[in-house]
Amino acid sequence: xxxxxxxxxxxxxxxxxxxxxxxxxxxxxxxxxxxxxxxxxxxxxxxxxxxxxxxxxxxxxxxxxxxxxxxxxxxxx
Length: 77
Known about the structure:
The chain is 25% helix and 32% strand. With 77 residues, it is of the alpha+beta class.
């Protein structure tokens, strides 16, 4: 039996006004692979678990996951 995930992410359609629950209007497009990459439509995800239940844009989730990796790395040092 697989353990249940602490946090789940489900891709959803763009919410009205591109509103992200982190408190901003998400960009219509962003460069997913870095500064020289093509502009691509911003994706949105319904995130639940560990007291979280909201709609977040992909750029915010990228930043949150990067910060979490840094925190884990520092704890391991």
